[in-house]
Amino acid sequence: MQTTVTYEQAKRQVERKIGLMTHAAVFVLVNAGLMLLNMQLGRFSWSAFPLFGWGIGLVFHALSVIAHAPGNSWKQRMIQHELNK
Fold first, then answer.
1. Per the structure, how many domains does the chain have?
2. 2 lies in a domain?
3. Long-range CB pairs of 63-70, under 8 A, 24+ apart, other chains included
4. Tens of pLDDT along 21-61?
5. Among 5-14, 16-25, 69-78, which range has the highest average pLDDT?
6. pLDDT higher than 90, residue 77
7. Within-domain flag for 45
8. What is d(CA 19, CA 15) in angstroms, rounded to the nearest whole number?
9. Are 38 and 47 in contact (CB under 8 A)?
10. Helix, strand or coil for residue 10?
11. For residue 70, is it within any domain?
12. What domain range includes position 46?
């Protein structure tokens, strides 16, 4: 089953991917800065906490971008399964 992706769907997917790339870049820069600050202070490794918490958010952001990709084969199989009922 072939689906036709409209211009608007493709544009929205590109915007999602750009948003994810921006999120990942900010994640890397901010957490690198926090780790450097943590190393300078030489205290308890507190920088792992925002890294872990924000990392979970970044993973879910990536999963949402992947799940909304037009033409996903698993999505098409589920739709075909429902149609065959």
1. 1
2. no
3. 64/16, 65/13, 65/16, 65/17, 65/19, 65/20, 68/13, 68/16, 69/13, 70/3, 70/5, 70/9, 70/10, 70/13
4. 999 999 999 999 999 999 998 878 899 999 999 999 999 99
5. 16-25
6. no
7. yes
8. 6
9. yes
10. helix
11. yes
12. 7-84
